[in-house]
Recover the amino acids of this structure.
């Protein structure tokens, strides 16, 4: 699977000539991956939604309160995602998404969400393939 992203920007407004950041993203699946999506009827499966952004706010605030450098970076990234609302299904990601954002932090959050969506999609496809009668052993 490949995630193809194209970045651009546009300037709009009569008075305030604000810059809008844009990204077009689309997942490109291999033939086997496309077959698996069809076989397991996974096209409508939500692999990312705005609820994750809400959770990122909570995690971001928690990380900011920790005060460490790593916590601070995670906190900023989590808070940047709160502005971003995106619902991604396997079908929608293979068809493509056009996203516009008013600031760079918001766009970086959107790109991160799209990468996360591909990771989730890969996990769904890999998990679906394991329902083939094999025995799994879990030791505790």
């Amino acid at each position: 699977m490949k995630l193809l992203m194209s970045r651009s920007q546009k300037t709009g407004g009569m008075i305030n000539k604000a810059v809008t950041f844009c990204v077009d993203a689309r997942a490109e699946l291999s033939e086997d991956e496309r077959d698996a999506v069809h076989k397991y009827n996974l096209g409508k499966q939500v692999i990312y939604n705005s609820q994750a952004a809400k959770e990122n706010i909570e995690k971001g605030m928690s990380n900011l309160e920790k005060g460490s450098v790593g916590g601070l970076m995670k906190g900023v990234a989590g808070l940047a995602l709160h502005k971003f609302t995106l619902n991604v299904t396997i079908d929608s990601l293979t068809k493509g998404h056009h996203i516009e954002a008013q600031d760079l932090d918001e766009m970086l959050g959107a790109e991160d969400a799209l990468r996360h969506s591909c990771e989730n999609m890969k996990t769904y496809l890999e998990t679906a393939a394991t329902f083939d009668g094999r025995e799994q052993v879990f030791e505790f």
Q: What stands out?
A: Residues 104-129 form the longest helix (26 residues). The beta strands are 2-12, 18-28, 46-48, 88-89, 97-101. The CA atoms of residues 55 and 129 lie 29 Å apart.
